[in-house]
Amino acid sequence: MNSEIDVTADGGVVLGPSVICDGFLFNHPFRVQTHIHDDHMDEFETSKQFQDILTSEPTRDMLIAEYNADLQYRTNFFGLEYDRTYPLGEREQIVLRPNNHMLGSVQTMLLRESGPSIGYSGDFQWPMESPIEVERLVVDSTYGAPNKVREYTQDEANHRLLELITQQIKKGPIALKGFRGTVQRALQVFAGELKVPVICSPRMRRDLEVFRNHGCVFDDVISLTDSKCAEVVQSKRYIRLYSKGDGTPSERMRKVVLGAYMSNPRDPVTEWPNGNFSVCLSDHADFWGTLEYVRATKAAFVVTDNTRGHGEELASELRARLGIQAVPSTNRHSSNWGE
Does a structural domain hold residue 128? Predict the structure, then answer.
């Protein structure tokens, strides 16, 4: 096992002795926050006290909107421009590059004066415009098994979602629930196409403004605290958004869940016996996309992130299909603080 790159038990990705992505590790002075999903936010509060935190500018803005107000005043919290090289001390440089997972999500590339370049895919979608090129790579393995293959494109999934909502809104209000990034993607699909009001919590409304400020285009969304909201609810023809911190729908309304994971590889839409629906708007590459990404990075040594499983399967497939050295992460535990 090459000890320079690995994944900790809590999912932090170690890139050499100075950088960890999405986690805290003692004596690692830099933390890269690849995006804002909860499963990548482990020990963020600890990192605020002991590390320099590097992230993209959109993710920085979302974290400021989400967490306490001190973030925007911290001198150890940096929003970096995409594709710009930043020095980390005298012998290392870092580059963040978009990976098509959600707004602000990034690949991380660490360039070193001595030693091979190393990188981390982050959670990613394929195809992507600019894969990093590194000698050693940690790759997400969410869909790392050969049976994790979609037989439809994400454009087709977008079309099916719009078609479903257009049909179901005729029957009454809809509760639309999904992760951050996925809900905003749905709103972009709906932009200019649905002539019904959309309402959400004040917290989500603040979140949506960050997305809008970074170029996402969607129709106006009404906050629950807005004076117009009561009239909209009485109309019985509206979409109510739910995401992080919003709880679960209590109203008697048809529910559509935007899932990140495929429930049916042949059809993005699943209708459940209770009359509700789920739609796969996946923000992860499937198995074939994962192989194509690794090939595009030109990495000669790959650690597959085994935090969510499929790491061993993906490592085996990379060795067999691409002929490169690949091993699953150890997900090691340690008795030392921050390890």
Answer: yes
